[in-house]
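Input chain follows. Return structure tokens only.
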Amino acid sequence: MYEHLETADSTEKLKRVVIDPVTRVEGHGKVTLLLDEDNRVRQARLHIVEFRGFERFIQGRPYWELPVLVQRLCGICPVSHHLAAAKAVDQLVGVDQLTPASDKLRRLLHFGQTLQSHALHFYHLSSPDLLFGFGSDLTRRNIVGVLEAYPDIGLKGVKLRKYGQEVIRMITGKRVHGTGALPGGMNKSLSGEEVAYLLEGLEEALTWSAEAVELAKQLFLSDLEHNQQFAYIRSNFLGLIRADGALDLYHGGLRAHDDLGNTIFDHVDYRRYAEFLREEVRSWTYMKFPYIASLGRENGWYRVGPLARVNNCDFIDTPLAEAARVDFMAHGAGGPVHSSLAFHWARMIEVLHSAEGIQRYLHDPDIQSQDLMTRGEKRHEGIGVIEAPRGTLFHHYQIDDQDLVTKANLIVSTTSNNQAMNESIRQVAATYLDGQEPTEGLLNHLEVAIRAYDPCLSCATHALGKMPLQLEVLDAEENLVARLERHA
């Protein structure tokens, strides 16, 4: 879409190019470019245009409802919100350590979630760009096109996601929006029949996961120079880390590295996150901008998610994924890998780790134990943090003496990647669109940069204080009669 406008400080005419909506992502967002008369890019921004407000409307609800309520934020990553909220609610009932059965069941559930979410994003949403080319025929750039041109790849992607969903279904009763976690534990264990059912498809899932890593690697290396430089930005990285430095998707301390791999902070109790992170609001989007407090707003923004986790960890405790990690890190020249398209390769390494993790827990007798619940002394504050597929996810709640929520704060993965996504599309715009007449293929390059982060825009839409608002009044001929604006 094109629109001409006049800048406030001059008579210079700028052309607005809008991608609305951004496609093949979860949720609703748009990209705007401002171009001058020579098609030079003057501004590029990612806008989140929907508002959901979960932090506000869960106030006044009983705390035990939270793990069920908050997963309605999203149909793609509900398990992540379910478990992050459950970890926070555990603290509200005074529980810092679950029983072995409940801990392992939650971890198994989380591996199923990571497996299905990553498979969905890579095969359904991103592989059309990677297999056909960023500027290829629009009608082919979808999962149907992949299934027609690469039926083996497409079908394995569908089946791999299905297996992850079956893990979720066995534990929570449903593939989407099931329930498993309770304050202080889990509501059921797995039966022998359920374990046997999941074991039937495990070997194929392991094989497909290893093939997914190889596919993502080959797609990245097939045009290494281009893929390394596409949407290339240098950033800090943030994520959870196990006490021994291993990758841990369910629990750990906060670790942050700078763009050279130097430690900013390490093994921080995530309940102290507010001492280390800040959030900024800007008027042109409903999504906030977090940053590391010690580095300030300009230099403190960071990336989360598979790329950050694989860069940050010292090792992965499953053998096949660890071998893949070592291979991946060899492309960082002794430091972190910064290429945005490397998110896909790192994402598939986590798929393989998840499949190996599922294998480990399916052979653990604890997941069939009935010792599922524990209790402690009630508290008024709980903070749960987990590594969702898209990155570090924070759930922070406070309750009153009547057990009702008085305050809620969520920092979701996509929010943490907000600045990085904006930096990435600016880099792509400057490289590919500057001075060019925009075409659908060129504009898709911007969407490819955004998709690398696997954003969940539905999860990320909330803000602090007054919301920016623009009201326009049009007459019957759609001429603008009046405009009212309120900024954040």
